[in-house]
């Protein structure tokens, strides 16, 4: 008889992992601490409760979120099936009725013959085969157990994400490549620099102060370490007109090649992926609303036409330094029968979390049934997400969502629209071949389905 699998967490990743493993015939014990132990964000005892937006992103196949959905549809995702069944009108995006969505996921899990749903808090890392998918609000005791497992320096408790822009949208007639100092860690030219005159800086500073911010949840507002650990740029700006110029925008060690002089202030961008197609704005974590970020950040010389892959944000989170801890199979490096999935591995976005759960669930089941865990191809969106969170630079690791910037680029030159369609064709073809070669279920016709059944 196949050994059972323990899964901790009834969110998107945990329920998807449980479904995938159970569908492969593995007995699953799924632990969800609610309603016995509540969190500061959830309001119900339903599984897969969406606590933020009800949108799961675009379903267009030439958009990164849509491509991921196509892959997950072909792989038999429970989360996507329930989302499509409870969809509400949202243009080209997949948005759901939160309550009925969570109810459908809960019912599917409760009715599966190979899944036992246990409403208890898990306070220790299981010694038997397990998947930890406890989410960004992991309970205190389990968090401490993960700290002991991974080491204090490999677990993060707050998510302070800087904005990410596409390299092709940076004006290189203004931005220049240079590092402040060659100290052995930073090589010359590791950073792109957007220089500012005093007038440009003062205009930017005023715009930051005037911009509208999001409303933090109560537990985030009350935590004394939330801001001090990683100061949002708008909070820093309120401390004085020159606070940013002496902080993340300090120009020390940099010379603008256009003038031969040091700028009054500078905004630095650091390469964010191996392909060099994405750059993050260093030190620019913020709670400005996304529309405000787009308007304000485009005041930076060199970013006047910036295309943003991700906006900056700050919110309560718990995630491990996955590049140090995990294989792309989602296995813990020091223990083959322990897997991680969801936001705790640094995957962002509802469908990204479900995707990591799908990968972990399939691989845990394969391991328990005597087969090798598989590494999904990095030229698929699912494989690229798993590859990114396990291969990013550990020193600068931050969570990532599905986007075309993490895929290997084409060798030939092509326009953006053509490239995005090409990514989709390559991905589904690669996933079909991979599934056939490795005995993974994949429904090609379902993957190519382009509309939502309302």
Structure description:
This protein is an alpha+beta fold. It folds into 2 domains: 287 residues, FAD/NAD(P)-binding domain (3-Layer(bba) Sandwich); 146 residues, Beta Barrel (Elongation Factor Tu (Ef-tu), domain 3), CATH 2.40.30. It contains 15 helices and 17 strands. The strands form 4 sheets. It has a 6-stranded mixed β-sheet. It has a 6-stranded antiparallel β-sheet with strand order 10-11-12-13-9-14. The protein starts with a strand and ends in a 7-residue tail after the last helix.
User: What is the CATH C-level name of the largest domain?
Assistant: Alpha Beta
Q: Segments where pLDDT lies below 50 for 5+ residues?
A: 182-187, 222-229
N-to-C span: 40 Å
Mean pLDDT: 87
Strand proportion, as a percent range, falls in 15-25%
Largest sheet: 6 strands, mixed
* Tally of individual helices: 15
Name the CATH superfamily assignment of the largest domain.
Answer: FAD/NAD(P)-binding domain
Structural class based on helices, strands and sheet pairing: alpha+beta
Q: What do we call the CATH topology of the largest domain?
A: FAD/NAD(P)-binding domain
- Residue share in helix: 25-40%
Computed CA radius of gyration, to the nearest angstrom: 22 Å
How many runs of DSSP E, i.e. beta strands? 17
Which strand order spans the largest sheet, edge to edge or round the barrel?
6-2-1-7-17-16
Q: What's the overall geometry?
A: globular
């Amino acid at each position: 008889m196949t050994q059972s699998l323990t899964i901790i967490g009834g969110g998107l990743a945990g329920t998807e992992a449980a479904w995938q493993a159970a569908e492969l015939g593995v007995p699953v014990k799924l632990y969800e601490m609610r309603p016995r132990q509540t969190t500061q964000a959830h309001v119900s005892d339903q599984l897969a409760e969406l606590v933020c937006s009800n949108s799961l992103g675009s379903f267009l196949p030439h958009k990164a979120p849509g491509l991921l959905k196509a892959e997950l549809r072909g792989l038999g995702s429970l989360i996507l099936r329930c989302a499509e069944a409870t969809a509400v009108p949202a243009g080209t995006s997949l948005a759901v009725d939160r309550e009925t969505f969570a109810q459908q996921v809960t019912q599917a899990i409760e009715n599966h013959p190979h899944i036992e749903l246990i409403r208890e808090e898990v306070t220790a890392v299981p010694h038997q085969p397990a998947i930890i998918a406890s989410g960004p609000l992991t309970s205190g005791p389990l968090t401490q157990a993960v700290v002991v497992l991974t080491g204090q320096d490999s677990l993060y408790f707050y998510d302070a994400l800087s904005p990410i822009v596409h390299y092709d949208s940076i004006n290189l007639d203004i931005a220049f490549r240079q590092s402040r100092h060659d100290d052995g860690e930073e090589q010359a030219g590791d950073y792109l620099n957007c220089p500012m005159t005093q007038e440009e800086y003062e205009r930017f500073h005023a715009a930051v102060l005037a911009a509208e911010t999001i409303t933090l949840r109560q537990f985030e507002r009350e935590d004394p370490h939330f801001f001090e650990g990683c100061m949002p740029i708008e909070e820093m700006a309120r401390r004085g007109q020159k606070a940013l110029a002496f902080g993340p925008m300090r120009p020390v060690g940099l010379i603008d090649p256009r003038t031969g002089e040091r700028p009054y202030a500078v905004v630095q961008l650091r390469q964010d992926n191996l392909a060099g197609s994405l750059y993050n704005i260093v030190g620019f974590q913020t709670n400005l609303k996304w529309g405000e970020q787009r308007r304000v950040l485009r005041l930076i010389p060199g970013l006047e036409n910036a295309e943003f892959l991700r906006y900056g944000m700050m919110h309560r989170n718990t995630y491990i330094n996955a590049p140090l801890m995990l294989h792309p199979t989602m296995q813990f490096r020091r223990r083959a029968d322990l897997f991680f999935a969801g936001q705790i591995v640094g995957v962002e976005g509802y469908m990204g979390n479900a995707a990591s759960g799908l990968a972990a669930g399939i691989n845990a089941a394969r391991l328990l049934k005597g087969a090798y865990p598989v590494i999904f191809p990095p030229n698929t969106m699912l494989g690229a997400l798993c590859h990114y969170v396990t291969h990013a630079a550990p020193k600068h690791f931050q969570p990532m969502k599905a986007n075309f910037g993490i895929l290997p680029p084409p060798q030939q030159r092509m326009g953006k629209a053509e490239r995005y369609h090409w990514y989709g064709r390559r991905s589904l073809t690669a996933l079909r071949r991979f599934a056939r070669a490795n005995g993974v279920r994949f429904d090609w016709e379902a993957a190519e389905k382009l509309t939502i059944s309302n």
